[in-house]
Write a structure and sequence with these properties.
The complex is a heterodimer of chains A (174) and B (184).
Chain A (H helix, E strand, L loop, with lengths): L1 H16 L5 E7 L3 E4 L5 E8 L9 E10 L6 E8 L8 E8 L4 E10 L6 E3 L8 E3 L14 E9 L5 E13 L1
Chain B lengths: L1 H13 L18 E6 L3 E4 L5 E8 L9 E10 L6 E8 L9 E5 L7 E10 L6 E2 L26 E9 L5 E12 L2
Antiparallel strand pairs in B: 1-10, 2-10, 3-9, 4-7, 4-10, 5-6, 5-9, 7-8
The chains are: A mainly beta (174), B mainly beta (184).
C-alpha cells in the first residue's frame, strides 16, 4: 500500500509541475521488500519516472540501501530500466553482487544524453564516484513516455535473503 | 490592533516549534538548486594540454559565505595505461584553464569511465573556498592538500571543466555534468 501511494505521489507530483527549470525534486520509499526461499529473480521495487520528467538534459539520482545474509553466496541486485512497467525485464543499467557483507548503500545515476531518446548511466553504484573499467550503459528509452526502474533481487542459495530497505529518488532538471 | 495580536498569538501557538534548532551555517532555508546540467559529449584528442569543455556560470551572490557547490561529472576515456586528466576550476572568467583549481585527477588510467564528484565550500566568507582535491574519491580520508582558492563569489564566477590526455592518440570525453548550489 505504501509503495502504491509513493508511486502515485511520484507520478502525480511530478506530472503536476515537473518542468520548472533548475529544480531538484526528491521522492522516497521504504519498501523493505525481501527475496528469500527462491532462486528466481524477484521484483523488490518499481520506481516510476513520469513522462517528460527528465527532458533532454535531466537526470535522476537514486540512492538505495539494502541488507543481506552474510554468507559466501552471491546476492544480486539488478536495476532494470524499461518502458513497460513493473517486472523483471528492462535494460540492465546496474548490477551489484554482495557476498560476505550485511548491508549496502549505493547510487544509481542516469542522465539524459542531450535527447529524450538516449540516456547514460554510470555502471558502478557501489562506488558511484570513482573510475571503472566497465563501460557506461546507454539505455535508449523514450523519456517523453513513462519509464520504470525495476529493482530486483536474485539469490544463489535459497537459505539466504536480500532485502531492499529504502530508496530516494532525486529528479534533477537543468 | 487587538485582533492582530490575538491572531499572531494564535498562529504562534498553532505552529509546531523545532524540537532542536539547528544553529550556525546560514539560515537553513532552501535546498540545492541546479545551476547547470548538460551533456556536451565533448572529446579531446590529438593534443596533450588542458582544453576547456564546459563552463557553468555561478551567478553573483548565489554562494553565500557558507555556500557550497556540488559538481558531478560523467566521463569516458581510452582504456589504456596513459593518464587522462580532468580539472575543475572556479574562476572569475569563463573557459579558464589556469588558476582557481579546486580539484584535479589524472586517475583515469586503465579505466573506461569515470563518475566524479567535488564539493566546493565557501569558508565563512564569500571570497575563499576549500575542497578536497580527489575527484575520484570524494568521500573518506586522504592526505591531499585542501585549497584554499580565492574567487569572489559576490561577482559572477564560472565552474570550468578541463580535460586532456597525456598521449595525443588517446581520447577523453566529458559526457555529462551537473552543478548544484546551496546558498548557505
Amino acid at each position: 500500500m505504501r509503495r502504491f501511494v509513493a508511486a502515485l505521489a511520484l507520478l502525480f507530483g511530478l506530472a503536476g509541475g515537473a518542468y520548472a527549470q533548475g529544480t531538484l525534486r526528491v521522492y522516497g520509499d521504504y519498501p523493505n521488500a525481501t527475496v528469500t526461499g527462491t532462486l528466481t529473480e524477484t521484483l523488490l521495487a518499481t520506481v516510476t519516472i513520469p513522462a517528460n520528467a527528465l527532458g533532454p538534459n535531466g537526470a535522476f539520482r537514486l540512492t538505495y540501501t539494502a541488507t543481506e545474509t552474510n554468507s559466501a553466496n552471491n546476492k544480486t541486485l539488478n536495476f532494470l530500466y524499461n518502458a513497460t512497467g513493473p517486472g523483471i525485464t528492462g535494460q540492465l543499467i546496474n548490477a551489484v553482487t554482495q557476498t560476505t557483507n550485511i548491508s549496502q548503500q549505493g547510487i544509481v545515476y542516469l542522465r539524459a544524453a542531450n535527447t529524450t531518446g538516449t540516456q547514460a548511466a554510470y555502471p558502478n553504484s557501489q562506488l558511484p564516484y570513482a573510475t571503472t573499467a566497465n563501460a557506461i550503459n546507454f539505455p535508449t528509452l523514450d523519456t517523453t513516455q513513462t519509464t520504470y526502474l525495476n529493482i530486483t533481487g536474485t539469490l544463489a542459495n535459497v537459505a539466504d535473503s536480500l532485502t531492499l530497505t529504502g530508496w530516494t529518488l532525486e529528479i534533477i532538471r537543468p | 490592533m487587538m485582533r492582530r495580536a490575538f491572531l499572531t498569538t494564535l498562529l504562534a501557538l498553532a505552529m509546531p516549534a523545532d524540537a532542536q534548532p539547528i544553529t550556525g551555517g546560514g539560515s537553513g532555508g532552501g535546498g540545492f538548486q541546479i545551476l547547470g546540467q548538460g551533456y556536451p559529449n565533448a572529446s579531446v584528442t590529438g593534443v596533450t594540454t588542458e582544453q576547456n569543455v564546459a563552463q557553468i556560470k555561478v551567478p553573483a551572490g548565489s554562494m553565500g559565505p557558507n555556500g557550497e557547490l556540488r559538481v558531478t561529472l560523467l566521463l569516458s576515456a581510452t582504456n589504456n595505461a596513459n593518464a587522462k586528466t580532468v580539472s575543475v576550476r572556479l574562476n572569475a572568467t569563463a573557459a579558464a584553464i589556469t588558476g582557481g583549481l579546486v580539484a584535479q585527477t589524472g586517475a583515469i588510467v586503465s579505466n573506461a569511465a569515470a563518475q566524479l564528484l567535488t564539493i566546493i565550500r565557501n569558508t565563512g566568507v564569500t571570497n575563499s573556498q576549500t575542497t578536497i582535491q580527489t575527484l575520484a574519491t570524494p568521500f573518506g580520508a586522504g592526505t591531499n592538500t585542501v585549497g584554499p582558492i580565492a574567487t569572489d563569489t559576490t561577482q559572477d564566477a564560472w565552474v570550468n571543466i578541463g580535460i586532456w590526455p597525456s598521449v595525443g592518440t588517446d581520447t577523453i570525453t566529458l559526457l555529462g555534468y551537473t552543478v548544484e548550489v546551496h546558498n548557505g
